[in-house]
Design brief:
Distance between the termini: 12 Å
Order of helices and strands: EHEHHEEEHHHHEE
Largest sheet: 5 strands, mixed
Number of helices: 7
Strand content: 15-25%
Length: about 230
């Protein structure tokens, strides 16, 4: 018997309607089979996950802090090496050391706040590339999100959507840090914060990777629902 990641007992749901396929990764007969199943509502729920469930929040917070520390250390090491290789002597900015440090903290906080919506924009761009329809929103006081309601992705497509901001912004951060280390210091907390902010994406990718190959995954504001084609067993 297969065991899939889930947060709650899944009841039989033989008729699921109103879903559309968001995927460029399916072609030919496989695509026609999925589209036909979606039109007929011939799906069964195999997993449902709420990443923001109260029972998961402590682990989410702990892992997010660990990723912030790890991400900060990662970019700090690259920055130090790049400073040495480029022969950088000092940060650009005001002559006053106090003013420069104050400005460094403020700009890094701004970089962090900008990175949060940028992270969600990259989710949205990836959804668009898969011919999906992203929807953006806010969960106050400070959480932004990008979702794709009433749409299903293949397992590979959903993992790509989940990990795209982490991969893209980390690569950009490494390139900027390696080429312009003095200026990258002003963005250090932003790039580290992007890694920390990807904690839910990493959890999602880890869980969905264990789903069967033919799983179809619907995203929502707090998690996802996974389906398989076929009558309820």
């Amino acid at each position: 018997m297969n065991t899939y990641p889930q947060n709650e007992t899944i009841e039989a749901a033989p008729q699921v309607s109103g879903l559309r396929l968001a995927s460029l990764l399916l072609r030919g007969g496989a695509r026609r089979r999925v589209v036909a199943a979606l039109r007929a509502g011939n799906l069964r729920v195999i997993s449902r996950t709420d990443l923001l469930a109260p029972s998961r929040l402590p682990a989410l917070a702990r892992d997010s802090l660990s990723l912030l520390v790890a991400g900060g250390a990662f970019f700090a090491i690259i920055n130090i090496i790049a400073w040495d290789l480029h022969g950088v002597q000092a940060l650009p900015g005001p002559d006053s050391t106090f003013a420069r440090l104050f400005l460094l903290v403020v700009v890094n906080l701004i970089a962090y706040s900008v990175m949060l919506p940028l992270h969600e924009v990259i989710h949205g761009i990836t959804i668009l590339l898969l011919v999906g329809r992203p929807r953006f929103g806010l969960k106050l006081p400070f959480a932004a999100y990008c979702t794709a309601p009433n749409q299903v992705f293949t397992r590979a497509g959903y993992i790509a959507v989940a990990l795209a901001p982490l991969v893209a912004l980390t690569v950009i951060g490494v390139v900027i840090t390696a080429l312009w280390p003095a200026w990258a210091t002003w963005l250090w907390f932003g790039f580290a914060g992007n890694i920390s902010g990807a904690v839910g994406d990493l959890m999602t990718a880890s869980e969905t990777r264990r789903l069967p190959h033919g799983a179809l995954i619907e995203d929502n504001e707090a998690g996802y629902t996974a389906y398989m084609i076929g009558a309820t067993e």
